[in-house]
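Fresh eyes needed here. Have a critical look at this protein's tokenised backbone.
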Amino acid sequence: MKCIVIASLAFASMGFISGHHPTPYTFPELKFFPPIVLPDNNPLTVEGADLGRYLFYDSILSRNYRFSCATCHQQAYAFSSGPIQFSSGSNGELLKRNTLPLFNLVWYKSFFWDGRTHDLESQVSEPLHAENELNMDWQLAIGRLSKSNFYKQKFFDAFGANAIDSDHIKMAIAQFERTLISANSKYDKVLKGESIFTSDEKEGFLIMNEINAGGCLHCHTTDGSPLGTNLKFSDNGLGAYYTIADYPDRGLGSVTGRQEDIGKFKIPSLRNIAVTAPYMHDGRFATLEEVLDFYSEGVQQSVNIDPKMTFAIAHGAQLSCDERQKIIAFLHTLTDSSFISNPEFANPFK
């Protein structure tokens, strides 16, 4: 298999000691995907990603030693929380939004439903510090890790660092998260000419991408891009919100402060959609059938609704039961079974 080797001249500027040369990480060949661009200040290495994997699964980073990143982001559910509508953290309080899955993050420019961080290193800090998640502070985390000979060696191997600090913790977890590539579903194999759709799967694909039918291609790209999302934010008409004050969750608007962004949320990828229920930022839909019911006849007018929802607002889709089942058949081709069972991404402590 051809591979893409990611190397960087940034090692010298990252505080690596003389003679310390971690191994550049090698991605598999990713046909049809956009080019990978990595940050110069955190080159991706085998040792860094390996350290990040341990930290991702280790409850040492939660104040009460009971939670880890993997508690809410479980591999079997494409690193979402699976059937749970709202996860709970260290203090037992439920989160207010459904847990997003983690994959193909190397192409993302913002994170969380509201896009409040713009790189994975910054993203790491949010759940770590949140009282209703890991409820941790850097001083305590660094103190715990510094007492571990295992982690001291891991940090040295990854960064040539004789002392553990918060920057290297964030960098390591971000490196592991960048390795979480999902690119081996049946859909991918069809694109590469290694498989073919069944008649129902093919019809479902066509219905989804027909503007006067499913119309999903506007936001969930599967016709021209394998990411399954346009990486933007949208108000998709979940409620009849006629004034800004009506929105129960301000979404992107709470970050930008712009009224036109209120009620807009990240458009998630359709990849692995069959294993990441429930759906929407508030997890209101338990099944794909419910999602299609909504887009077929349940979209509501709101002050900031995406103009691309005009056809759906007019209840123009009116998908038949047969059409909905064919769409669902196609959506199942987006499940990457090798990704959700890849031992390289699994709990290293087991």
Notes: DSSP finds 13 helices and four strands in the chain.
